[in-house]
Amino acid sequence: MSSMSKMNNRKNSAIYISEKYHGQIHLIFGLIAWLIIFLITKNSNFYSLLLVVVGAFLPDIDHLFFLFWYGRKTEYAKEMNKYFWKGDLVGFIEYGKKNHKNNTSILSHNVLIPVVTLILVIFSLSNGDNDIAYLFMSITFHFVYDMIEDYLMLGKLNGNWFLKYGNFS
């Protein structure tokens, strides 16, 4: 097997894992965020762990705003809505996992948001608000994984990271 073929197999395997375990990977990145804050503060509780889990998934709420509000006229949203309104949750999730990287119009997924959340982590830590630091670090790591996933699946960052949004209609 050629080295190019091996590289394509690795890339395809990584894409498969990313699509199949997308939510679990976000959770793992949230737990890494938890570990970093814990190592800094040596302080954690159930509430901070709960905030990490919330932060691991919170940024993806914007995908729902896109689908049902500001991007509802796009082909991607129309297709997703077909699955949703038919009650085909499995089809909805699978279609979203396989096609969400082609959606370049999610407003919150831009470079400014993780920079702001990282600043909020630093601010929270300096004020002793450790629980809030856990939340914002988890949100930051959500976006870090999304950027890694862009490189993996697209070979580059989506334009939305640089405030170059695609079509909303």
Can you give a write-up of this model?
With 169 residues, the chain is mainly alpha-helical. The protein has one domain. It is 72% helix and 0% strand. The protein is built from eight helices and no strands. The model has no long low-confidence stretch (mean pLDDT 91).
> What's the β-strand tally?
0
Instruction: Give the N-terminus to C-terminus distance in angstroms.
Output: 45 Å
The structural domain count equals 1
Q: Which percent range fits the helix content?
A: over 70%
Can you give the mean pLDDT? 91
Uncertain runs are none
Q: How many DSSP helices?
A: 8
Strand content: under 5%
Keywords:
mainly alpha, 169 residues
Give a quick summary of the entry.
The protein is an all-alpha fold. Helix content is 72%, strand content 0%. The protein has one domain.
Topology (elements, then pairings):
Elements: H1 3-20, H2 22-41, H3 46-57, H4 61-70, H5 75-85, H6 89-99, H7 112-126, H8 130-154
